[in-house]
Amino acid sequence: MKLRISTLFFILFLIKLNGVAQNEVAPFYDAILQFKQIDKTNPPPKNAILFVGSSSFTMWHDIQDYFPNFVIINRGFGGSTLADQIRFVDDVVFPYAPKQIVIYCGENDFANSDTITSQMVIQRFSTLFNLIRTDLPEVTISYVSMKPSPSRWHLKDKFIEANQGIQRIVESNPNASYINIWDGMLGFDATPNKDLFLDDMLHMNAKGYALWQKAITPHLSK
After folding, report:
1. How far apart are CA 3 and CA 10, in angstroms?
2. Rounded to an integer, what distance in angstroms lies between the CA atom of residue 6 and that of residue 167?
3. What is the C-alpha separation between 78 and 32, in angstroms, rounded?
4. What average pLDDT score do residues 196-217 get?
5. Would you say residue 18 lies in a domain?
6. Residues 171/178, Cβ–Cβ less than 8 Å
7. Can you give the pLDDT at residue 24?
8. What is residue 222's predicted lDDT score, i.e. its pLDDT?
9. What Cα–Cα distance (Å) separates residue 49 from each residue in 62, 103, 114?
10. SS3 for 111-135, per residue?
11. 3-state secondary structure of 177
12. What CATH number did the domain enclosing 65 receive?
């Protein structure tokens, strides 16, 4: 069954989410301005595959090289949460008129606050999903599961529960897919494979991105 969220819910949620004083600059505003400048100088193609999310996408600087048979636009901004993706959906999603949107986000929601529950993150994703569906009803939406970062292994239970909830949402909707990278990033002892990560044990190295390439490619729209 396709999820439906009332217009009133959207309005109330976004008002709360954007409760920033008028004299304050919203977090990540500089990153959004940089995207706009890039788009002005080098207008992006329409009908491309849009990657949005947090630093795991931001740091994938050579992402186009991993998917040579697809046209990729990367608009991940590091440190962002699902709440930030909702806040800037009009800036980082809708202007690109993509044929597919690949989302990686959610880790930072938990890492930024001990009070954030799995259900709250699932609801944030649901809100983002429905916002996109409302304006782009035919677009394919793919969600890359939260990864098992060694530095955030203490949050694994929340990550697993949120991944499962988001998977249920995605798989209950048409033109949507869930990309499980969690299992493939675990070692034989069922803990994170540290060989896939940089020294910070949070972000990935080339081995990690090669694993992601293999998991994501079958889900990309031709």
Report:
1. 13
2. 22
3. 11
4. 98
5. no
6. yes
7. 54
8. 86
9. 15, 11, 34
10. HCCCCCCHHHHHHHHHHHHHHHHHH
11. strand
12. 3.40.50.1110
Query: Nearest-CA neighbor of 210 among 200, 195, 220?
Result: 195
Contacts 24+ apart (CB under 8 A), 66-70: 66/209, 66/210, 66/212, 66/213, 67/213, 67/216, 67/217, 67/220, 70/220
Determine how many CB atoms are found less than 10 A away from the CB of residue 222: 6
> Is 0.70 surpassed by the pTM of this model?
yes
Q: Tokens 């677009």, residue?
A: 139
Q: What is the pLDDT of residue 19?
A: 46
Q: Distance (Å, rounded) from C-alpha 174 to C-alpha 146?
A: 21
Within-domain flag for 137: yes
User: If you search the block for the tokens 């400048």, which residue do you land on?
Assistant: 37
For residue 52, give the 3-state DSSP assignment.
strand
Position 3 pLDDT exceeds 90: no
Handedness of CA 32, 38, 39, 45 (dihedral sign): negative
**Tokens representing 188?**
């034989």
Q: Find the distance separating the first CA and the last CA of the chain, reported in whole Å.
A: 26
| 10 belongs to a structural domain | no
Task: Give the residue numbers spanning the domain of 157.
Answer: 34-219
Distance CA(1)–CA(171), nearest Å, equals 10
- Cβ partners under 8 Å of residue 131, min gap 6: 10, 86, 89
User: Whole-angstrom Cα distance, residue 151 to residue 148?
Assistant: 9
Which 3 state secondary structure label does DSSP give 36?
Answer: helix
H or E element at residue 165: helix 156-171
* Residue 153 CB coordination number (10 Å): 12
The domain total for the chain is: 1
Q: Is 128 among the domain residues?
A: yes
Q: What is the DSSP letter of 190?
A: S
